Amino acid sequence: MTHRGFSHIGLSTLDLDKTREFYEGVLGFKPVVADTIKIEEGGYLRHLFFDVGRDQLIAFMEPNGVPDVPANYDAGINRGLGVPAGFYHFAFEADSPAALAATRCAPKASKSLISSTTNGLSRSTSKIPTACHSNIAAWSATDRRATR
Q1: With 111 labelled, which of 10, 20, 129, 133 sits at a CA distance of 20 to 30 A?
Q2: Are 106 and 98 in contact (CB under 8 A)?
């Protein structure tokens, strides 16, 4: 089998509209599929996929009135497992440290991108989005290549 990366990563959100605002409006990812999945037992799931580059997608599901799914639950991966924030996370590559800084300083990002760190090899911007997960790091591709 030839490995080509992942097809998609699926995550849960309690507010798909806010999630879309962040991924499309702040990070600039293009939504490519949006659908509603009716659940036979009742309720429905709103489902949205974003193109994150290299033919890879990230998908979010928002449950609405689905039996045995609470209306409010902790959609964060880390808290639910009882581990510190950032243990489970994923990272998107930025074109350059300048592109990362421009995203961090964009007006739409002011309430979304909450901190910036340098770990010696890469620059990252952390974000706590609409309870989908606890951390997103955007890495400079140039810095990342230096670690290989």
Answers
A1: 10
A2: no
Cα gap 1→87, rounded to integer Å: 30
Domain ranges (residues) in the chain: 7-64, 78-148
Q: One-letter amino acid identity for 137?
A: A
Q: pTM for this one?
A: 0.75
CA distance 42 to 27: 34
CATH, domain 7-64, list 3.90.1300.10, 3.10.180.10, 3.40.640.10, 1.20.1250.20: 3.10.180.10
**Which residues, given as ranges, of the chain have pLDDT below 50?**
114-115, 120-126, 128, 130-141, 144-148
Q: Which of 142, 31, 45, 64 is nearest to 96 (CA)?
A: 142
